[in-house]
Every structure is written in C-alpha cells, then in structure tokens.
Write a structure and sequence with these properties.
binds D-xylulose, binds cobalt (II) ion, two-stranded parallel sheet, globular, 8-stranded parallel β-barrel, alpha/beta
Length: 440
C-alpha cells in the first residue's frame, strides 16, 4: 500500500518552478568543487522525527496524521518501516538515521526488546538490498525509559551502566549488519542536575571507560564505522557533559579517545551552547574532527531545542563554507534532525519540510563554493594576519622568539598600527554573493 499517495518522486525543476513538490535549488547531479550535490551533502532523513514522533509537546497530544496511526506495537513498527522506504525513495535521499527505539518498540525485558529489534533489522536489511537509501548512522536511545533517569554510562547505578553497555553492544552489531557508516553517541542524560548528589569525577571516568569498551567491541566484530559524539550543553539535563565541541575535545583527549571519535554537530545544539553553528563546525574542522552534521535550526526567541527544518540561508551558507573547507564530510552527512511544527500535521508536510531544508543547503553550497573560489574571505584573512608572515611575526610563528626578544622589539616600537576588521563590509559582500550566486 502507498503511505504517501498524493506525492510523486521529488525532482529538480529550477528556481522558477512554482511546484511545491519540486526542488528549486537542490540539483542532485550539479557539481560543486568536483562532487555532485548529492555526494557533497549526503542528506539523511531522521527516522525519529519523520516517522516515530507524533507531534506531542509538554502541553498537548500528538497532532500528526499518518497512514499507520491505526496500528500499535510491532504492527506499527512494520507499517512505519514500509512508509519510511516509500518516503526515502520519493524524496530521493541517499541516507537515513535511527535510534534503536525509533524502529522497534522497547519492552521491560531486554531479551524481548532485542527480539523486536532483530525482526525489524532483518526487514531493513531486505529493503537495503534494493534501495538507494543507505544507513548513515544508528544510535541507542538511552534517555526515554525511566531507567535512564540519572543517566546511562554516567548513572550512579552500575546496573544501568551494564544495561547501557548491552544496548550499545547490540547497536554496534546492528550497525555492522546494516552497513552503517557511522555510530553516534548523543549523551541524552549524561550530565547532572546538582553537585549536591553527584560524583562528577566517577561519572566522567565511567563515560571514558564506556567509550573505550565500545571502541574495543567495534574492533572485535570488525565494525569500521566512524564513531561520533554529538555535543549538546543542556536539555534534558541541566549540565550536559558533552557541552560543546571544545569540551568534547578536552574529554576525548583526557581519556585517550581523540583518535577514535569525531563530532556530529547539530545547529540547534550550538545555539543552546551560546555559539553559532559555524563556530562549532569550525572548531571541529581545525582539529580534524568534523565528522557529520545534524542539520536543523533553533528559534532565537525560544530557549530550547526546537529542531526546526533549516531555512536560514546565512546559516546554511556559513555551514557549507566549513564543510567545503573540510573537503566534505567523509563518511558523515547532513541529517535532518528536524521536525515539522505541530500545525504542519499532513503527511505531505514531511516532503515540503525536507524540500525546504535541502534547497536551503543547496543554496548554501553554491554560495560558499563561490566565496571560496573567489578567495573572498581567504584573501581578507591572509591580509589581516600578514604581520605573522614576515619580521617579528614570522619569528613568533617559527618558534624563533622568546619573551627577551619580543620585549626588546616592543621597547623599540614607536607606535602600533592596527588595520580595520571591515566586518560590515564583509557582511555586505556575503549578501551580494547570496543574491548573485544562489540561483546557480
Ligand atoms: C537530541 C538529539 C538526538 C541525537 C541522537 O537533541 O539531537 O536526536 O541526534 O540521539
Ligand atoms: Co541531533
């Protein structure tokens, strides 16, 4: 049966198209710096927002109207799966992502939970034989069930730690079975509420131990996916341990894990951490740890993780700038960790939302590539730091200066001449590129 009978496969029709069910800017085969848009952006649909979530919020019930609403339990899981592969095909996306809990119902018995999972995983494996859409990453939900109330690998309860290990062990096996290119760790409840009841050192050491066990097990079973940490500063916990990329790097280096992990950076999480999306991408990139992206956007008027579909062209442009400078995302991709608003309850809205996100990133990729080609920012930045390419600056960079030499030099300086940072002009140039380049 068809779950989306009102929608056909979405095609590129160009910027003048008035067809809502067509891409205006995302042209999968168009080349950006030697890669097709499809290969460069590697879009993924997130199973949880698109198929599992029903539109509940803390104040109200779900609003989504879906073809599989009449089912429950495993029947619901199977109907959703059928809908998901129809959706992937019609959206023509190369990837999808899921938590174990999104694809198969959990029960209080771990044995039964794994049995449910195995049944659905076998079905996914069958779909993957003929589907163009592959698994970008999978992960374990270790935050929804009440057992995780004080964390998973950072729980004060060793039984919970063991349970979490069993879930991730299974997740790694599932990832291998389905050919996942990455495995994600988002620290759902890995954080704390108050130091009055928390042994932070033990919790962090345990998290380090947990990640080492995961690395060892993946190696043991020959699962070669890239491991990714997804930072988020708060929500659901008050103090989340993987606060942002910089905190994550410090953690990974402290526990000797920095060569085993990269980051999955989510736009809305960056904002919650008080950063821009591009800041987080940049920090990861300059440390060689930009792995994948959860593409969404927050709302500046709301202080929580609203997970909106990305439509802000400044943000997509500056994000694609970092991604292109990174030489692409390697085994990562742009996963729409984004949900339609409660008022957008039709199944068709799922297509319209993904089109909006994919078109926005397509514009961003074109504009960013042109900015890079024309060396607009590179030249400006090179000039701004030119004092480090000659004289005393070169000595500093080459390690030929110490405080004696620098102080001698400074004492002889008549006056210091700074140059303008030209921020406003650079923003105007960005606007000019956005308006001139976006149409392709
Ligand atoms: C939560 C979030 C998660 C992760 C995967 O804010 O982003 O969905 O992406 O667990
Ligand atoms: Co996410």
């Amino acid at each position: 049966m068809s779950h989306f009978q009102n929608v056909n496969t979405i095609k590129y029709e160009g910027p003048d198209s008035k067809n809502p069910y067509a891409f205006k800017y995302y042209n999968p085969s168009e080349t950006i710096n030697g890669k097709s848009m499809e290969e460069l952006m590697r879009f993924a649909v997130s199973y949880w927002h698109t198929f599992t979530a029903g539109g509940t919020d803390p104040f109200g019930e779900g609003t989504m109207v879906r073809s599989y609403d009449r089912y429950t339990g495993m029947d619901l899981a199977k109907a959703r799966l059928e809908a998901s592969f129809e959706f992937f095909e019609k959206m023509d996306v190369p990837f999808f992502c899921f938590h174990d809990y999104d694809i198969a119902p959990e029960s209080d018995s771990l044995t039964e939970t794994f049995k449910n999972l195995d049944e659905i995983v076998a079905m996914i494996k069958d779909y993957l034989k003929t589907s163009k859409t592959k698994l970008l990453w999978n992960t374990a939900n270790m935050f929804s069930h009440p057992r995780w109330l004080s964390g998973a690998a950072t729980s004060p309860n060793a039984d919970v730690f063991a349970y979490a290990a069993a879930k991730v062990k299974k997740g790694l096996e599932v990832g291998k079975e389905l050919g996942a290119e990455n495995y994600v760790f988002w620290g759902g409840r890995e954080g704390y509420e108050t130091l009055l009841n928390t042994d932070m050192k033990l919790e962090l050491d345990n998290l380090g131990r947990f990640f080492h066990m995961a690395v060892d097990y993946a190696k043991e079973i020959g699962f070669n996916a890239q491991f990714l940490i997804e930072p988020k500063p708060k929500e659901p916990t008050k103090h989340q341990y993987d606060f942002d990329v910089a905190t994550g790097i410090a953690f990974l280096k402290t526990y000797g894990l920095d060569d085993k992990f990269k980051f999955n950076i989510e736009a809305n999480h960056a904002i919650l951490a008080g950063h821009t999306f591009e800041h987080e991408l940049h920090v990861a990139r300059i440390h060689g740890m930009l792995g994948s992206v959860d593409a969404n956007q927050g709302d500046p008027l709301l202080g929580w993780d609203t997970d909106e579909f990305p439509t802000d062209l400044y943000s997509t442009t500056l994000a694609m700038y970092e991604i292109l400078k990174n030489g692409g995302l390697g085994s990562g991709g742009l996963n729409f960790d984004a949900k339609v608003r409660r008022g957008s309850f039709d199944p068709e809205d799922l297509f319209l939302a993904h089109i909006a996100g994919m078109d926005s990133f397509a514009v961003g990729s074109r504009v960013a590539q042109k900015l890079i080609e024309d060396k607009v920012l590179d030249n400006f930045i090179a000039d701004r730091y030119s004092s480090f390419r000659e004289g005393i600056g070169q000595d500093i960079v080459e390690g030929k200066a110490d405080f004696h030499k620098l102080s001698e030099y400074a004492l002889k300086l008549d006056k210091i001449e700074n140059i303008s940072g030209r921020q406003e002009n650079l923003k105007a140039t960005l606007n000019q590129y956005l308006l001139n380049v976006s149409r392709g």
